[in-house]
Amino acid sequence: MNSFLLRRVLRARWYLLGCALCLPVLAFAQAPPTAASVSSSTAHTATASTISNAAATGTQARFDIEVQTESDELRDFLLRHIELQRFRELPDLDDSELSRLVDQVPDNLGDLLGTLGHFNPVVAVQALPSGGEVTAPLGRVVIQVEPGPLTRVESVLIAFRGEIADSPQAAEQRAAIRNAFSMKAGDRFTQADWDSAKAAALRTLTATRYPAGRIDGSLADIDPSSQTVRLALELDSGEPVRIGEVRMEGAERYDSEAAENLVRLSGLVEGSDYDLRQLQEAQRRIAETGYYDSVFVYVEPSADQQVAPVRVQVRESPRQKLVFGIGASTDNGARLSIEHTHHRVPGIDWRVMNRLLIERDDQLIATDWTSPVDRRGWRWIAGAQVARQIDGFDTTTSQRLRLGQAQDNLALDRSFFLQYDRAISKNSLIRSLGPGVAESSLTGNYAWTRRRFDDLVQPNSGHGLGIDLGVGTTLSPIRRPFVRSHLRWLGYWPLGSASDDTIQTAEVALGEARPAPSSSNAGRLALRLEGGGVWAQKDAPVPETQLFLTGGDGTVRGYGLRDIGIAQADGGVRPGRYLAVASLEWQRPLVRQGVRTPWESVLFVDAGAVADQPGDLRPSWSVGTGLRYKSPVGPLQVDLAYGLDDKRLRLHLSVGFSF
Questions:
Q1: What is the pLDDT of residue 640?
Q2: CA nearest to 229, candidates 520, 506, 15, 451
Q3: Sign of the alpha-carbon torsion through 327, 657, 332, 396
Q4: Which of 216, 227, 303, 390 sits in a 20 to 30 Å window from 654, CA-based?
Q5: 279-289: buried (b, 16+ CB within 10 Å) or exposed (e) per residue?
């Protein structure tokens, strides 16, 4: 190996070792950093770019820089970071000083290219004097760069020190760190990816049991002759930390017992292992109670380094709140809403929410009462509502009373309750035949919803299942027993390889860290299924609010809200005892110049049917296309659907994901 190559190898090794030693250690309760993104360059014909006087920031540049290399990305990266950029606008720079700076260009670019995995570059530098096309006073510096082959990872070694090294309880965590390490044998090596992989491994270490863990050493052993690198990382866990007592701060207006119950229900009990996910879950659950405007849940160091008390800091919401809302939907037109919330009703300490909703075809007045969460995670629920619903020529007026208990978690919701329903439907075309007959019922109900999505705001994979079951009897005009069930299922399947390097996220620059991609350019399939049934004698007067209609934004697109039911002679529809709905979507990201945008295209097929007998179910079909925009609150959905039965195009708008 010649002296130049030996010097380059030593410089690369010391450079990488220095970066490893300077990697910040995560603090005891520090939040994990956000992963960055990277875009991969594709080789093409040689390109050149010149930073000239016109590109200068208002000051006359003393010289121009031109870089000629195989890709635009690499060229732009070198132009951004080359040392020469710092001296272009120095007013007293002369030829001799510029000549000295030019001599340093090969070493400087060698270091830059080394961070991208190119350790055998060929760099040629030429200084052109001023004159002709070269207008800068000191001329132009022309740099030709052949980056050479990429360096690939040959092997990865992850070792452990401290309690995690031999603890049987930490075996799963050790395996998780090794399996999740983002750099594998055969991967392209860059300094940014190496730093990102080490930081991710440290986050996994400190997220469970070992919040004071640190990187004890790391090494990237590069062999330029074979363009390979051997990676080694040593993690020191320190001693495990257990959860101490819960300390609540800021609770004055509302009883802190409910918040403390939620902390315990999240798994943060005294003596349990430290778990960052449980801290985050406790913070989310307390914030969702509505009693607090802000919530922070974290652990703090103590004299005993192996025990960490949980500190809950809250800022309480006002006792009462009044909210006015206006909006619109493609299903129901303009919307006006008024909500009044009282967080602590005197005497019982329950929270009550009163709502008034006025839409084109729906009007609702409702009140919902909930008790604070008990030690088992359950809360009492009570509610009443009066509603009016217009479907074609039919107007249904209904009342509902409910009393029971509910338990809400991130992945699982459960509730059981007694419910009284009363409904009367009138048809404006046959009003002369007399008033409608009120139908009422009393049911015992159980509802269960489980979510297994990878993300509850922007899901890419996973599934969810919801089951509602009710058993009861009609009350008027005659009594008949009946059973009602309603099932919902939603699943996502990513298509293609999740490691597709042609897909990048927006705002990516060469040299930034590459995160684990969430999906490929093939997108994903989404399948939604829904079914329901009411089993009763044929003459059982089940209230219409317990029967089924479908159609609209979230069910069968291409049809209006509740347009799919049992056809009537007047052209309208009435609800039926059986329901079947299916929807299949192909959701695919939109890519521009190799960069994934926050937009997605959608193709879908929907079908839905309602009948009084299972054998009479005849689906109404629709097909369509749409766009999705990934907003912070969930996908903004715009769909154009064509109903094959009514042969109409309809636009559907909705926002957010919920199941």
A1: 95
A2: 15
A3: negative
A4: 390
A5: bbbbbebbbeb
Distance CA 45, CA 70 (A): 6
pLDDT band at 341 (very low <50, low <70, confident <90, very high): very high
Dig out the tokens for 430 from the structure. 């046959």
Map residue 274 onto helix, strand or coil: coil
> Is the CB of residue 357 less than 8 Å from the CB of residue 364?
yes
Residue-level pLDDT at 508:
44
What b/e sequence results for 187-218 when a residue is b if at least 16 CB atoms lie within 10 Å of its CB, and e otherwise? Answer: bbbbbbbbbbbbbbbbbbbbbbbbbbbbbeeb
The model's pLDDT over 102-122, given as tens digits with 9 standing for 90+, comes to 899 998 888 888 888 888 888
Q: 363-369, long-range: CB within 8 Å, 24+ apart, which pairs? A: 363/387, 363/388, 364/388, 369/345
Helix (H/G/I), strand (E/B), else coil: 107: helix
Is residue 477 reached through a cis peptide bond, with omega within 30 degrees of 0 on the bond before it?
yes
Look at strands 504-505 and 595-611 and give their pairing: parallel
Strand order in the sheet with 307-316: 242-249, 307-316, 292-299
DSSP per-residue letters across 508-541: --TTSPPPPPS--TT-EEEEEEEEEEEEE-TT--
Given a cut of 70, whether residue 431 has pLDDT beyond it is no
Average pLDDT estimate for 202-227: 90
Kindly write down the DSSP assignment for every residue of 546-558, as one continuous string.
Answer: GSB-B-STTSSTT
Alpha carbon distance 642, 96 (integer Å): 74
Alpha carbon of 189 to those of 34, 77, 82, 196, 494: distances in Å? 20, 17, 21, 12, 27
Report how far apart, in Å, the C-alpha atoms of 133 and of each of 18, 65, 87, 93, 580 are: 43, 13, 21, 21, 74
- Phi and psi at residue 341, in whole multiples of 5°? -120, 130
Closest CA to 543 of 471, 441, 434, 399: 441
Under the banding of pLDDT at 50, 70 and 90, the label for residue 288 is confident
* Position 106, amino acid: P
**What's the pLDDT score for residue 70?**
81
Show the beta-strand stretches assigned E in 392-437.
Answer: 394-408, 412-427
Sequence length of the chain is 659
Give the list of residues 6+ apart from residue 472 with CB closer than 8 angstroms, or none: 419, 441, 442, 443, 444, 481, 482, 484
- Position 90: which residue type? L
As a whole number, the mean pLDDT across the chain is 83
Q: Give the H/E segment covering residue 472.
A: strand 462-476
Q: Give the Cα separation of 70 and 41 in Å (integer).
A: 10
Three-state DSSP at 303 gives: coil
Rounded to whole angstroms, the Cα distance separating 222 from 110 reads: 14
**Token representation of residue 296:** 């922070």
Amino acid at 658: S
Report the alpha-carbon distance of residue 363 to residue 388 in Å, rounded.
Answer: 5
3-class state of residue 202 by DSSP: helix
